[in-house]
Write a structure and sequence with these properties.
The chain is of the alpha/beta class. Helix content is 34%, strand content 23%. The chain has one domain (6-192): Formyl transferase, N-terminal domain (Rossmann fold, 3-Layer(aba) Sandwich), CATH 3.40.50. Helix 5 packs across helix 6. The protein is globular, with a radius of gyration of 16 Å. One of its GO terms (biological process) is 'de novo' IMP biosynthetic process.
């Protein structure tokens, strides 16, 4: 790996589809390379995908810490910092992080969220958009701050909500937009460009 590339650690909890799209984008003239894929879930599907792509993997199982979030995050930081990443990309990492963890990576951490923030922070975003009678839904990439899903929005992609949509059909239509948006934002963020991306 060239010393000119920034290093990106990607945190996941599941199948890792956004991780794969990010990793696949970091090739050729891209200014970054993935240095680690870490999961809080042993056996998360994304870990095998990362290994198959030649990316280092790690697991820090939150269940090993019996509710001690501080100790869990200490282990998380230790596992991440062993790879000295420049940027942390949360890609379906389903743990709420404390201000201490966020401060440790302040200004260097991105997250993708399946709603048009500031609408529908938290969970069940697609169902909430349908129930509210919204005409469109989508996804947002934002910088991570201590406020849940509340950091500066760096990009959004939109899809229409169709009359017969369910949460599942809407989620399936938003996912490809996530796979396009996150790499587009990351590429800019790596070089310090926080101009908003709208797809």
């Amino acid at each position: 790996m060239s010393g000119t590339h920034k290093k990106v650690a990607i945190l996941i909890s599941g199948g890792g589809s956004n991780m794969v799209s990010l990793a696949n984008s970091m090739v050729g003239d891209h200014p970054a390379r993935p240095c680690l894929v870490l999961s809080n879930v042993p056996g998360a599907g994304g870990l095998n995908k990362a290994s198959d792509m030649g990316i280092a993997t790690a697991v820090v199982d939150h269940k090993d810490f019996k509710g001690d979030r501080e100790a869990f995050e200490e282990a998380l930081i230790s596992a991440i910092d062993a790879h000295a990443p420049d940027i942390i990309a949360l890609a379906g990492f389903m743990r709420i992080l404390t201000p201490r963890f966020i401060t440790h990576y302040a200004g260097r951490m991105l997250n993708i969220h399946p709603s048009l923030l500031p609408k529908y922070k938290g969970l069940h975003t697609h169902q909430r958009a349908i129930e509210a009678g919204d005409s469109e839904a989508g996804c947002s990439v934002h910088e991570v701050t201590a406020e849940l899903d509340g950091g500066p929005i760096l990009g959004q992609a939109r899809v229409p909500i169709l009359p017969d949509d369910t949460a599942d059909t809407l989620a399936a239509r938003v996912l490809p937009r996530e796979h396009a948006l996150y790499p587009a934002v990351l590429r800019r963020f790596v070089v310090g460009d926080i101009t908003r991306v709208d797809l």
